[in-house]
Amino acid sequence: MCGIVGYIGNKKAVPVLINGLRSLEYRGYDSAGIAVLEDNEIIAIKDKGRVANLENIEDIKNLNSSIGIAHTRWATHGKPSKENSHPHLDNSKQFAVVHNGIIENYHELREFLSQKGYTFLSQTDTEVIPNLIHYYYTNGIRDTDQFLRAVKSAVDDLKGSYAIEVMSKNYPDRIIVVRKDSPLVIGKGNDENFVASDIPAILCHTKDFYLLEDNEYAVVYANDIHFFDNSLEEHSKSIKSIEWDATAAEKNGYEDYMLKEIYEQPNAIRETIGSRFKLGEKCNFDDIDISKEYLSQVNKIWIVACGTAMHAGLVGKNAIEKLCKISTEVDIASEFRYRDPIINDKTLCIFISQSGETADTIAALKLAKSKNAKTIAVTNVIGSSITREADYTIYTHAGPEIAVASTKAYTSQVVLMVILAMYFAEILGICDENCVEQLKSDILDLPNKIETVLESADDIKKFAEKVYTEHDMYFLGRGNDYCVALEGSLKLKEISYIHSESYASGELKHGPIALIENGVTVISILTNPDLVEKSISNIQEVVSRGAKTLVITNQKLSNVNFDFIMNIPDTNSLISPILSVIPLQLFSYYIAKNKKLDVDKPRNLAKSVTVE
Ligand code: AGP
Fold this sequence. Notes:
single chain, Rossmann fold, 36% helix, Glutamine Phosphoribosylpyrophosphate, subunit 1, domain 1, binds 2-deoxy-2-amino glucitol-6-phosphate, alpha/beta, 25 strands, eight-stranded antiparallel beta sheet, 23% strand
């Protein structure tokens, strides 16, 4: 999705802006552009294609300005083209704007402006914004606040979601920013300040951030930042220090972010566990305040998320139902928000989102709140939009995840959901303490066991080399293994573009087995000792129809004729997905590499889906 960067300070703006845009490439985009103030004129350089193309434009190298705004665009209104790329300027070229989000009423605003004589060069919704600013600027009272007031009047006319950055040739000492339902942060430096839609874009310059709230304005100067509420009343704002190391958002010698993030999982899990529990002590979540009285009357838990985060929710459901005996349902956020789900003040809703910016998940959360449910957000990104909406936020602390395909965020979400389930069970006082103690010990062993799984990466690589030219694959499992099958199948589709399906093994006979023919690849996950015999029978059914089989298991299998068995360490069934998903992450990765695909930036996908 779109990305924003801004700079004002004592350095040349262009390298800072380009660097920032490069850090945002992972979000997915199809065009890029910058605008700077040079000799009192706005110079905008933009085009469809990669950020690297911008850098090679000769004119850009001669720009010395120390104020600028920049953008990567993921097309929504109008195809990727130079005209549709941001920044957009008003007709008089006094104002330049970059915008993330969608302006829903842009047709009527365009109509209004056209009647006033404005013309448009692009098909975008964004181009109305600089022209509206110009309209209010020229029709407003002339005083020192004229620029800010014009931006505010324009923003008042907008319906939809937006993070907006504005620069004016009449005010070369400032950038104005505002947001609603789309993220925007301001990084504080020494004699310089930064703006970004995403912390990693400017993490190499500062760790001190202001997280802009919805409908909050900031006027950013090189040495100062002023914050205003929606009535343009000025207020002070506290700064947040982000613990992420700048190098955490770099590749550190790995060929791709995805591979790096797969290998970061032992540490990510250690960070997720953090001080949430120790052996012999109860789980503790300083970040939430849930009482026994409240939890005892909860009659339903909803876990709502999208994509991989939803798959983590499925594992969370199994843990909550097993340990807490509370009926728990998992739903896809885009379905949940439109199907009038049964929610009341006895419903607890948990929303999982790595980015904390997924539009559907945030909308689902708002819906749950409007129906008086208590809401918990599980996210990886500090200060992300979801954290402002939820009653409580729990952070996964997995560190920045840059690759579009989620890996370490998934495993840390799963760990966190299981710890949350133990925490609820301890509050309710209904759990078998020995069982929970054993589970805690198993969770603490996970980082070392993940390392063991990673040591077998070469075996998975070899299997991937054998099957990477195939067109269809199937993933099977029961219980938590089925949750992992869903995730393995999604990962494969996302980065290797191979069609794949995942099925609960028991469903095979109810239709999908008709698709199994000689040479088809079937990947089975088999970790639950209670279901091992049944699962083996299901795999035998596909073997006897000619399937090539990869089996990921922590069981000792004898007398089986599977093509490839990947052994992983044994652990509690509630957390087995954390180990069994890793060979599948590697499998997708190596298939994509064999197909020479861009693993980190798969086609058509964006890291955070901030529009519906
Ligand atoms: C995961 O590999 C995908 N990129 C995608 O399914 C993702 O999990 C989904 O879009 C949800 O994102 P979120 O966790 O940031 O809300």
